[in-house]
Queue: 4 jobs
Job 1
Amino acid sequence: MSQSFAGQADQGADLETLARVVGRIRTNIERVIEGKPDVVSAAVVVLLAEGHLLIEDVPGVGKTQLAKALARSIDSTVRRIQFTPDLLPSDVTGVSVFNQNTREFEFRPGGVFANIVVGDEINRASPKTQSALLECMEERQVTVDNTTYMLEKPFMVIATQNPIEMEGTYALPEAQRDRFMARVSVGYPVEAAEIAMLDSHTTANPLDDLEPVTDAGEIRKLTEIVGQVHVSSAVQRYAVALTTATRNSTELHLGASPRATLHLVRAAKAVAAMAGRDYVLPDDVHGLARPVLAHRLLPSVESAMSGRASTTILDGILAGVPVPESGRA
């Protein structure tokens, strides 16, 4: 057997393993979140791409349920932080406390020291507290009193927020939004799914019976498999063309950053792996543009006054950038 053939066989087996684990995770989450397969898939994509997820929607549609269902599906450390106006940065990152017995300062970890951190209603905390997440989300580390503490992989922040038009909210700063790989909205369920929810949620909460279907070690292996997915130069150029078009658009005050391009390609690799492919298609990138790019864009004053949202502007940009032919090369 040739070395290249053996390598392809190993990769095929890895992709089968990934598909099997992803299937278990999705089935587990869908026991809690019914009728929203696209939202569930997006959450798993961000997990495998080592990103962070922002779930934005009106109250009561299951944002926190989705975050907790994903967290409980993985046998790993999970912490929940309820973001409130009086939450302090040290509550998030941790604090050094003087120990009277040892006569030394000792570090007490904050809420971010976990594999999965559920940040509930993140935009109800002050901008000062929100910014406490910046270092850990990007660099997977926390610095307190000149000492740096590394965060264990996998590390994922799943944050929920209400639309900024609602009372008691602070808009997330651009630097914070840019650190979230994707933003999704749960949306209202269809009638059949809402009726099914009444049957399954009124007698008991299915979240209480949710058991882990994988663990942190296996998730680390899956992220390595995703990292080996091939991205052709044509697909790379297409991703760059999309983000460059947002920067050159006269309808946008702020376009997508280079970090957005990186997140777009990493998420596309996760989508390809979940589809059983070891290479990314242009359609993978195209399909992810809205959840990965839209929340980073700021419409110009003229666009905002005319009622054109960033998603509408992005749709126009997507239509104007030629999609390269599909292929592995």
Note: The CA atoms of residues 115 and 152 lie 6 Å apart.
Job 2
Amino acid sequence: MPLALLALALGGFGIGLTEFVIAGLLPEVAQDLQVSEAAAGMLISGYALSVAVGALGLTALVNRLNRKHVLSGLMILFIAGNLVSALAPSYELLLLGRILSALTHGAFFGIGAVVAASLVERSKQAGAIALMFGGLTTANVLGVPLGTLLGQQLGWRSTFWAITVIGVLALIGMLVLLPDRPVDKGAPGLRHEVTAFRNRQVWFSLGVTVLGFGGMFGAFTYIAFTLTGVSGFASSWVPGLLILFGLGMFAGNLLGGRAADRSVPLTLVVVLSSLLVVMIAFALLAGSQIATVLLLMAMGAFGFATVPALQTRIMGDAGEAPALASGANIAAFNVGNALGAWLGGLAITAGGGYTSPLWVGAALTAGALLVLVVAENSRRRAGRPSAAGTQDTPQSTGIHEHV
């Protein structure tokens, strides 16, 4: 295994930690900076929208540049963003730091996957890419709860200092271990990639992604408030409960990928339907600590089980121009994150209480199911087969480039 993969995985770990750890620290941030819960939630939705911008805009801008130089530059921007967050004396500067670090997210994972695949022989490319994304998964399972605990014990700024250090270590690793990767000047350009958007199924897929992932994040953004304000857990329990959510996410992502290899449409219907039921049950039973623990794990599992199927669906419909469509789906995930966080904050502000984001999540998930049904009916009327679970080599590579 090339050591350069570990540098990429460490970068993925830091980025994943930056994205998700703030959810467990929102109460502390809101109290320290004296802002409302909804304003604190903007630290998540603002990040998500910036990821969407970076996933498309930055990727397009650096499409022809040396991959090692691009990844190193992105990590420098990531470090700067977290440094601003750690030092921020005000809510506005903290939001700015979040935006700066978020701009690196989509481009880093898209370009990093290309580099990871190039480091090994063709038969091992999927494993190399999986290792890089293993950093993101590890961030959710272990990094987020530990980062939350650190922030609760030493102040929320300490978590951003820790992430800054992780970014510096990842940058050093990439500078030392990554080989130069100039772009093949004969590779297809962005004009070719744009042709994927002529297929309306690609747009249906983006709609399902926005609503489906928005549903899960509408609930998750304010989960610390729900756990402490409704379920009655002490704030010291939040890191441990987030570990359970992360374990559910890890299992759901793995099992969702296996299911999508068999049938993408069936997987999405089953998973989204299950997520809808879980969110309704969570909203009704949040006062029970036992039910909360079980439903929190289930929400993580079904929420992230959608990811492989959603990515596979859009890549199957993008045909021979998968890269930009895949990047657009990463943007859609984060637009959904922002939409869910915004609507959840509005629901709390309107007096709905800390279970209202769960109802918002359920409504968005129901919308995703409706769009999916319309899309599959449209496909059948057109006499086209559903997106296959298994892609050929070019499309598989395209999927892994931007997941």
Note: The CA atoms of residues 59 and 107 lie 5 Å apart.
Job 3
Amino acid sequence: MSLRVLNYLELESHLQRSGIGTAADQQRAALDGTDVEVVTSPWQGGAPLSAFRALATGGGVFREYDVAHCNLVGPGSLAVARHAKRNGIPLVLHTHVTREDFAESFRGSTTVAPALGRYLRWFYSQADLVLCPSAYTKRVLESYPVDAPIRPITNGVDVDALAGFADLREEYRERYDLSGTVVFLVGNVFERKGLTTFCRVAEATPYDFAWFGPYDTGPHASTAVRRWTSDPPENVTFTGWIDDIRGAYGAGDVYLFPTKNENQGIAVLEAMACGKAVVLRDIPVFEEFYTDGHDCLKCDTTAEFRDAVERLAEDDDLRERLGENARETALEHSLDRVGDQLAALYREVHDAVQAGRSVDLDTVWDGR
């Protein structure tokens, strides 16, 4: 019997270029090769307003599905969770947001993070199964503590979606006036992702640096984001939104990611899938995925990041070797593996709830 699964991302139209949006897109792409039927909206008619119109005429607010899988933690996801619990529908909650990675993202986010942590502990504990991108995130959730079975599963990387990135190299380098060895980063501009370190390393080296991704200069922007984007070092370009993310991977040579906290980091896998040499901050989440000196270089201080960038810029053989190994690492996170794991997990949580038992994660293939 095939399963009909709700894969829901509230505020989806606002999260198209975010890591959460990419993760949800990749889940759905991965499930294309399985027998799982995916619906992406819980609402009758596809939107809350349409659902309430249906309710007014005697219909129901929610569509029918066998398993509910939510990727965010806001009011829409809370409504789905409550509906699922009231109606015996298995509930899967995916941890893309933690107290730790919310800090240093927006103005005031660090202050709000403790209260968010209390909400997340309660919210994730409603689930029949919690999914998260890494064993590191599982340990974070256990420390809250979240009272639900927790299973790490990689976000994966959509290698096919990156095809043709190299063909865009000259176009994007010319568009942003980049030349020589280009040090780059992809994603929303946040201090948590190492913004100050990125700029300090640029100030200490002669190479062109480019951060490909949107940034906010309005009231929600942090002091660090407003400071660096309004007055960047001469060799740093903040591109803002770009129309084809493949252009970033085509234009760049060394992927510098001095992030302070991640649940996994999809853009790292994308850079690796494109064979780029990667420099990472040595934080716990990267220990389980990447090996210093094999598929990346890991650093702690600004001076170490500067030295790593200079080594890679001056040593073609090292850059190529790390890039080749990085590509092999990225292939271990292919979407076909993600799809098989998700389908198996959906099946287990469905059968467990139907049988009135707890989810048994030991029975589910982990793809490794």
Note: The longest strand covers residues 4-8.
Job 4
Amino acid sequence: MPRTGFADLPLHTGRAPRWLFVRMTALAREIVTVLVDEFGTAEVLRRLSDPYWFQAFGCVLGYDWHSSGLTTVVCGALKEALKEAGRELGLFVAGGKGRASRRTPEEIAAAAAHLRSDPEALIRASRMAAKVDNHALQDGYQIYHHVMVFDQEGRWAVIQQGMNLENRYARRYHWLSETVVDFVNEPHAAVCCDERTHPLNMVAAEAEAARHAVAELSREKPWRLLQELRRLQRLRLPPHHEILLRDIHPDHLASIFVKTYEAQPASFAELLGLPQVGAKTIRALALLAELLYGAPLSFRDPARFAFAHGGKDRHPFPVDRALYDCSIRILREAVARARVGDRERLEALRRLAEWQRALLRSEHPSP
């Protein structure tokens, strides 16, 4: 299962205050440094790809647990934290919100000198993750934030977020390279959300026949596809049909069909990767695949849905700045001591974590 999950969060406006963002950056740097020193960069990527761990990470950094801003601000703090420390740790961050998300390929290329892997593979993974969540899974959330975290070996995690202005929610998607087998087959391993939609899900397992049919149709002569779409517009579909013919305009798709025909994509993944292919193209071909070939489509939403220093909006309590600074200092000193052989503080933190896990197991025993 390639993608590790996603989360739905209510859209919030506003900015993180400067005094908080500075502390978030400092604490994020110390937390990531401890994790790299103790477990390596691959484990950091695994944790960032876990929507529950990422949410807890944002809460520890003092951001609102239920805010869409948690994604953008935590990723921004992480990127700032690794701007200088990243080369030493072997961990890099590319992308961001809005325009910054579109700079992901060039930021990956800029880190190429520090990598022991092909940056082009990272760039392709970044683009495919965005294409899948924007076009192959049409759930009503438009991607506006895309961040890739990667290490020297070419392992990566992608954290991206889309917004739905109708229900006022944002949805966060997580990816992890080590579990990617196929970008277009069942990429949702774990999903956290409150708001569900009824999407066209072309990456569901049950849509495999539709993916093959769509790829085959994309290689057809354009005039045949347009002829079929115009003929379908004269039909009466059942009222429950999720793809509406009024959403499809054959004349607007003519030039795209010419390009897909010229490209002759061998598979759905190859079709999706074409730069001209977007949500409308996939939607039209999916409808033809269903009605002409009887290939079943999937409309299954793959979704299912701790504070340490307080929260930005004073929930559950205002951020305690003195406590926050103390946490940064303790971690920074623990890392510095461990690197010269004195692991007493890190071992104390490890014992505390083990004690907490044991306490949770005793309070919630397995059935």
Note: The radius of gyration is 23 Å.
